[in-house]
Amino acid sequence: MLDIQGPFDNASIIWGLAIFAALYETPEQVVRLMEQVVDVTLAVVQEHRRIDGCPLDEHDGAWNHLGGVCVRNDSSICVGPRHYRDLIRGCDERLLAPYGGWMHFCERAAWWPDLLDIPNLRGINPHQGEFYDLYSMYEQCEAARMPIVQWTTPLDRRCRERIRTGFSRSISAADYDAARRLVDRLHATGHADGEGA
């Protein structure tokens, strides 16, 4: 599946930085643009899949086990929970409705708990884990049965003891031997993070 970004990310590229003022001054125009972005994105996804012959709900990336589309909300992290809920979320829901998928965001998304009840959302990818309390996030996600995928920061002892399902971790290794040691630790302990983490 091609990288479709998300309704607000694409709208912010089209509109430019002035979109953030427009969220206050002319929010209905921002929503209208995002709705058009969703229409075009869904048409592009269908055409892409017609050309490549893959199922509409299949994704080729690291999360292909989740299927569907990846809605990227990197620009949306600049808005608060109210603006996300009132202006952006509806377009994210529309984009996810036909195929399902997951949502990616970098930095601190103050609105992330509002994602947990979006229909057809199959997982969240809060890419920069250092901005979050993983234990608290996991507790909320587990209650909502929402997986956290591709977590990027080390897990502390409390998280290693608590987290057993609905979670995937992304770790870089310096070389092949270091990667093998990480795999061995994962198989032995259930986590690849060291005891000192």
Task: Sum up the structure in keywords.
single chain; 197 residues; mainly alpha; 7 helices; 5 strands; 45% helix
Describe this protein's structure:
- The protein is mostly helical.
- The chain has two domains: 7-151, no CATH class; 154-197, no CATH class.
- The chain contains seven helices and five strands; from the N terminus they run H-H-H-E-H-E-E-H-E-H-E-H.
- It has helices spanning 7-15, 19-25, 27-52, 81-96, 134-144, 157-162, 176-189; strands at residues 69-72, 101-105, 121-126, 148-151, 167-169.
- The strands form two sheets. A three-stranded parallel sheet has the order 1-2-3, covered by helices on one side. A two-stranded parallel sheet has the order 4-5.
- Helix 6 links the parallel strand 4 (148-151) and strand 5.
Strand order of the largest sheet: 1-2-3
Order of helices and strands: HHHEHEEHEHEH
Report the sheet with the most strands, covering strand number, pairing sense and barrel closure. Answer: 3 strands, parallel
Tally of separate helices: 7
Residues in helix, % = 40-55%
Q: What's the average pLDDT?
A: 89
In whole angstroms, the N-to-C terminal distance is 35 Å
Strand content: 5-15%
> Globular, elongated, flat, extended or rod-shaped: what is the shape?
globular
Q: How many structurally independent domains?
A: 2
Output the structural class: mainly alpha
Poorly predicted runs: none
What's the count of strands? Answer: 5
Rg calculated over all Cα atoms: 18 Å
